[in-house]
Amino acid sequence: MGQGPEKPEKGTAPSVAIDGARIRSVRETKKLTQLYVASVVGVTTDTISRWENNRYPSIKRDNAEKLASALEVDLRDILRQEEVREIPDLVPATPSARTPRLILRGGLALLALLLVAIFVYKLRNNAPAPTAVRWVPKFAAPGEIIPVQVKVTRQPGETSGFILKEKLPGGLQLVSSLPASSATEPSGTGIKWLIPGGSASVTVSYTVRIPASPALEKEVKLDGEIVVRAGGANRTEAVAGNNSIRIGAHHWADANGDGRIDDDEIMPAYYIYEEMKGLGLDWKSIEAIWSGKGYRWESKSGFTVLK
User: Fold this and answer.
1) Which H or E element spans position 189?
2) Is residue 5 situated within a structural domain?
3) Which residue of 186, 228, 234, 250 pairs with 139 in a disulfide if CB–CB is 3.0 to 4.6 A?
4) Residue range 148-166, pLDDT digits in tens
């Protein structure tokens, strides 16, 4: 035997006529289960099923309001149209009547945005900085102009600019550089290059002059770093590679210090000269030593080619 419509209890709000088909359509569109809706309203799943199948065409108004809240719609949206017209005091649901599910969704969305922001922040702060590697010759003679190169490789996806700082040991003087240096310290020992952003690797080449009368067989060392802006703060990375030069009676192109520039040494020297053309390197003397049997260095006359 079928059950009749709910009757309003004494002292409770009157019943309202609901649209079962509309209720089912809204619930399925929002992918809500009958179990969820029933738990929010405070009834059984059988009751929700009966409401959707119009077994209870009229229900208590407070249950209807809970049902609308569970479905995240206005009360008007689940009532029969004639019912809406007959009850002029119906008003749209206020934010306070929204379901905890809606609040949960909003909270999850905010949490997701927060996690994304944290991820981006950490990614920027922990992104690997460009790597800088220096090359300097092992040997140099007093008064000689020698080459120095710092090759900076940017990491994939990293396009920020950076500052390269090189510090020369006492007595060494900057001759020229490519690109031109952006600033030098008054003492001349500190050199800075401001490199703009981009994705390509960068080579900074410069030449320095060895003091004319230093102690022979003395070892001097260069020092340097790159400065990168990341996460609102500066990060510094030391320049790797060679940094030591032994000052003595050997030409900078004589890589093994055997008193001659052989075929294995002339080509690397030529490549460096080509990359640093115009920075003060003496290619003619290098070529003359390579063509001869070797060289000799003396404090008064410098390099003499051995025939």
Assistant:
1) none
2) no
3) 250
4) 999 999 888 788 889 999 9
